[in-house]
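Why does residue order matter? Because the sequence determines the fold. Keep that principle in mind as you read this record.
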Amino acid sequence: MNLSFYKLSVGTLDQALSKLLPKILSNGMRAVVVLENEEKVDAFNASLWTLGSGSFTPHGSSKDAIDPMLQPIWLTDKFENPNKSEVVVLAGMPHSGDLDTLEFKRVVVVFNSNIPDQTEGSRTLWLRYPDLEKTLWCQSKIGEWIKQDGFD
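Structure:
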């Protein structure tokens, strides 16, 4: 399993996810996006229709009453894998349980560096898995992603 951390300092979580998810799809992978609560799932679901690279990002959630296996991106507030994804994206709220339980190949943690609880939760997750390959990406002042060494 590989862990990638994305430390936001410019823009919103929705903006970052709307750029990240098409990249996951372009690599032939499926994703589960875990958000803090149902309200955030609904809000991000709506924002995927208006944000992004100008093309539709296929996605669904439990409110769509559709088979999750038909959706390459599944939005949820639960740590689950109903669409057999290779990637889980923990959006703004690092998971506190065992990441191995659902056998994801890649875990992506996106957190806002201006929210102390998100930063501390991400740091805790980073330290919990000392033997795994981990990468930290931080935003520059203009929003470009820069690879960092270690969790600062």
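Strands lie at 2-8, 31-34, 60-61, 73-76, 87-91, 106-112, 133-139, 145-148.
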